[in-house]
Amino acid sequence: MKKWIALLLASAMVLSMAGCGSEPQESSQAEESSQAEESSQTEESSQAEESSQAEESSQAEESSQAEESSQADSAEADQGNAGEESSEDAPTASEPGSFTTAVEGKLTMATNAAFPPYEYVEGGEIAGIDAEIAAAIAGKLGLDLLIDDMEFDSITEAVKSGKADLGLAGMTVTPDRQEEVDFTVSYATGVQVVIVTEDSAIASVDDLFAEGASHVIGVQRNTTGDIYTTDDIEDEGLGTIDRYSKGAEAVQALKTGKVDCVVIDNEPAKAFVAEVEGLKILETEYVTEDYAAAMSKDNKALYDAVNAALQELIADGTIQGIIDKYISAE
Ligand code: GLN
User: Fold this and answer.
1) What average pLDDT does the segment 5-29 reach?
2) Which domains, ranges and CATH numbers included, belong to the chain?
3) What is the model's pTM?
């Protein structure tokens, strides 16, 4: 039935067209072709629009992804989904290649891995706050991290000579060191504290400076603990300083009675006291200080890139996140 209706309709159309002569046919052809043209133009222009939109949106996406990944580098790492957006794609602090490093493609960090929780050896690897911060900086700069473990008092020289790109070692900013190296912005605060035996007669920091005092003080060589006690105590005739290459060795000397106390940074102090029985940290603090990365004065481009990366990592909360992983709030 339907076929018949269709046929009827079709023949009615043919009849009516035939009745109008040839012109309408032409015009209908013209119409068709113009319609075809229009539609093909529309298609083209809509394709063009689409593709330009696609371009824009893909650019926008890329740049917003780049921004996100640069802002949330370590947040990603914390969440365990790092690596999807390669940090090499987001060199925000500086374009790779605009600076030189000790080893091409690497960021070489000089440290002394005997300073927990900032740097220590765990399972054959160097772990800790500074190691993670350096890795985050390296990631931002599109570099791989290389860690060079050495004596604390060799770090400045390694940085000055360009053997290492930065010294990251819970290092305190001091005027004397500032003559040798440039420091980045500070990323943490340290406090010099005094470790004593639980039965010690030394009850407060002031006892070390008291008239007639004559204590033997253990320190890690060339650290600020060494520098301050040398000035305040040894040079004042109020005692002597025993210098060790590692903080843990000074603490052992305290345990075995070779020294009367140890002056050292509070976080490693906590770690050492937790491991050695019979020791405590005096409540009074000696000095509060700022930790920063030490860099060469002769590689301004690298300094600027590292400093900018560190500032970004501070601003977006990455550094605090790393510190909080290792140091619980008191
Ligand atoms: N903050 C101290 C200093 O800079 C100790 C650093 C360290 O022993 N790694 O001297």
Assistant:
1) 40
2) 98-189+290-326 (3.40.190.10), 191-288 (3.40.190.10)
3) 0.72
